[in-house]
Amino acid sequence: MITRIQPGARMSEAVIHGNTVYLAGQVGEPGDDITAQTKTTLAEIDALLAQAGTDKSKILMATIWLADIADFEAMNAVWDAWVDKANPPARATSEGKLASPEYLVEIIVVAAV
User: Fold this and answer.
1) What does the radius of gyration of the chain's CA atoms come to, in whole angstroms?
2) Cβ within 8 Å of residue 56, ≥6 positions away
3) pTM of whole model > 0.90?
4) Per-residue pLDDT tens for 38-50?
5) How far is the C-alpha of 37 from the C-alpha of 75, rounded, in Å?
6) C-alpha 21, offset from chain centre
């Protein structure tokens, strides 16, 4: 069985298949700095995981895209305060062009339900 959360014409914000939930890339508010965008992005992830019946302690993998890798330390400061320290996921971080130049960070997660 497949369950789609907040489906749209182009994509769903999350898809549950079996005991795994796949989130679409989440971003912060355009115009905010990297710290604020990271906080907003992680709050969106928390909300979607809750809708899927899970939470950040069950994240298996996180992929983080930064518009500028120079923001790595500032993003990590927010991430480190948020991540479940008893259950940290596997993670990759890279620099890349995002959908709009106003976005500074995009985070994609896969979690267990």
Assistant:
1) 14
2) 45, 46, 49, 82, 83, 84, 87, 111
3) yes
4) 999 999 999 999 9
5) 9
6) 12
